[in-house]
User: Which sequence fits this backbone?
């Protein structure tokens, strides 16, 4: 049997000439999130993202086996 969990992160765009500012800011935070869940036995099952206005929404779907 599996257990599932969803984590979300929201990042807001700002006026800058660096078009990659959201990626540069979010990458270390995403890696820390993945490392934390991996230590607890979770695996990343799926991801999705969407934008609305000046915000970017990222969703991470994790799963792990429930011990018998």
Assistant:
């Amino acid at each position: 049997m599996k257990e599932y969990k969803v984590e979300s992160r929201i990042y807001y765009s700002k006026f800058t000439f660096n078009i990659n500012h959201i990626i540069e800011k979010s990458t270390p935070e995403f890696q820390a999130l993945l490392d934390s869940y991996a230590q607890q036995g979770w695996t990343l099952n799926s991801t999705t993202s969407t934008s609305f206005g000046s915000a970017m929404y990222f969703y991470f779907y994790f799963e792990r086996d429930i011990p018998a």
